[in-house]
UniProtKB/TrEMBL annotation:
Naturally occurring in which organism (per UniProt): Catenuloplanes indicus
Molecular function terms from GO: catalytic activity
Main localisation: membrane
GO BP, sorted A to Z: signal transduction
Protein name listed in UniProt: Diguanylate cyclase (GGDEF)-like protein
Length: 526
């Protein structure tokens, strides 16, 4: 009976821990989830505000450029074509992304057309032929047209024939300020399918002469913008690629630009719609968050709270069950924990051994040539510097041999790089085996080797070593396909002198090597 009671007591304790822990987890999850929703909404509000401000800023920047251009044009008493080209020289579609053309437009009545043609041709608008739109006596002719996108020049076109262009010109003149046209899709656009025609707007800035008179108005500076190119990157950048955005001209019923990065977040009330007025036009921006924005804003804290709370509850319940169990189960748990700890220690020791092995490999790679296993330039220079100090202090002699393989290039060209590698490794093995343990053999790159011969009795020792090197190198070398090839060695010898530096000795050995090569190869020189 006592055993049964203890068993039921253990079950009841576990059930209480589970019930209490899960209840607290659910409450914490609810609170954190509400906080996540607030943070996400605030992040979306911030992104939407940034996107809207960026669109307004972009339109304002382009408007400022056009207004400055209008001011510059107004400062010209007689606006020659060369003046227009000079003033607009710095305006490109690299600086003005999305701009397709910039032009100068003048007003005229039908009766004034001949005078307009004669006057502006005289200012350099060669070939200007005004083409008046039908059905109106008031015209707006393009005099100068700087095209960015390769479309035909519109010199002489009457913008009065384009309702959107006519409206923005009239609006800019009446307001005496920059104006933006309704969105429109040109009938002559390269993409004529209904769903693929591109949307444009025109910016117009009035040009008034500085004279205070009734005829002070002279024309307009205009800029054509392809709105998708103009706004798309701004929408992506300011939305941090986490907001899908669409800009429309509601009055014109046309989409100006849209971007749809990532995957749209569903089941949220985070969609935002802002309106802004630029150049007298009202634009509308619709923004929708992506799963990235929701994830970044919330940080997955609610899910983490739920998972960690549930995990902690299960852990506490398991611990309660273990503590309420028999002594034998507790001891078994201790044994299992001890075994796991030992395995972890063994695993750590294994990992540490592997790390030490990798460190040794990296150190070897840092100071040795990967093809031949010989010392590289860095290790050679270090040992040469050490030899200079020790031999100078003790008054001993050492020598440096520079070796260049004769005929290696022909083998490499004829038999391929694998054959060349075989030759380089074979020569390296012969040099290493033919020298003392205290001597240093290094590969300097390509088919050049260098040797430090330490503790010599005199220069004759270096001579003997050079003769041995020449003899060993010129022995035939068998390639993998059985072909026997041969190379010879030109050896330069430099013996340490008082006051000489490592660079001096290397330079002397290199010079001597080239002397040997010039003298006929397969020999040595001091």
């Amino acid at each position: 009976m006592g055993t049964s009671r203890r068993r039921w007591t253990s079950v009841l304790l576990v059930a209480l821990v589970l019930s209490g822990g899960l209840s607290m987890t659910a409450a914490a999850h609810s609170v954190v989830r509400a906080g996540d929703a607030r943070y996400t909404a605030a992040a979306m509000d911030s992104s939407a505000g940034d996107v809207t401000a960026a669109v307004a800023h972009a339109a304002t920047d382009y408007g400022s450029v056009l207004s400055d251009l209008a001011y510059s044009l107004a400062s010209q008493t007689d606006l020659y074509r060369n003046d227009f080209l000079r003033i607009t020289a710095g305006l490109t579609n690299v600086r003005l992304h999305g701009a397709t053309r910039i032009g100068y437009v003048v007003p005229a009545t039908s009766a004034q057309i001949p005078d307009v043609q004669r006057r502006w041709r005289g200012y350099g608008a060669d070939g200007l032929t005004p083409r008046p739109a039908a059905g109106t006596d008031v015209h707006s002719f393009v005099i100068y047209d700087k095209v960015f996108d390769g479309h035909p020049n519109q010199q002489g076109v009457d913008l009065a024939g384009n309702p959107a262009a006519a409206e923005v010109l009239r609006h800019a003149r009446n307001r005496r300020a920059l104006a933006i046209s309704p969105a429109f899709q040109p009938a002559l656009d390269n993409e004529t399918a209904t769903g693929s025609r591109r949307t444009f707007v025109m910016l117009a800035a009035p040009v008034f002469s500085f004279a205070d008179s009734a005829d002070a108005f002279r024309g307009w500076a205009v800029m054509m913008l392809r709105t998708q190119d103009f706004l798309a990157q701004t929408l992506l950048d300011r939305g941090a690629n986490a907001v899908q955005a669409r800009v429309v001209d509601p009055a014109a019923g046309l989409e100006l630009a849209s971007v749809a990065p990532g995957r749209r977040a569903t089941g949220t009330a985070l969609d935002r719609r802002h309106e802004l007025t630029v150049g007298g036009r009202r634009w509308q921006i619709s923004m929708t968050p992506t799963t990235r924005l929701v994830s970044d804003a919330s940080g997955g804290l609610s899910g983490l709270t739920l998972a960690s709370g549930a995990a902690l509850t299960v852990m506490l319940a398991a611990m309660t069950g273990i503590l309420a169990g028999s002594r034998g189960r507790a001891l078994d748990q201790v044994d299992r924990a001890t075994t796991a700890l030992r395995l972890d220690i063994a695993r750590r020791q294994q990992i540490e051994a592997q790390l030490r092995e990798r460190e040794q490999e990296l150190q070897h790679l840092a100071f040795h040539d990967p093809l031949t296993g010989l010392a590289n330039r860095l290790l050679f220079y270090d040992r040469l510097t050490h030899a200079l100090h020790t031999h100078a202090r003790e008054g001993r002699t050492f020598a440096v041999l520079f070796i260049d393989l004769d005929g290696f290039k022909e083998i490499n060209d004829r038999h391929g790089h694998q054959a060349g590698d075989t030759v380089l490794r074979t020569v390296a093995d012969r040099l290493r085996e033919g020298l003392r343990v205290a001597d240093t053999v290094a590969r300097f790159g390509g088919d050049e080797y260098a040797i430090i011969l330490e503790s010599l009795t005199g220069a004759d020792d270096a001579r003997v070593a050079a003769e041995r090197v020449i003899a060993e190198v010129q022995a035939p070398i068998a390639l993998k396909d059985g072909t026997a090839v041969g190379v010879s060695a030109s050896v330069g010898i430099a013996v340490n002198q008082p006051g000489a530096s490592a660079d001096d000795i290397i330079r002397d050995a290199d010079t001597a090597m080239y002397t040997a090569k010039t003298a006929g190869k397969n020999r040595f020189a001091f």
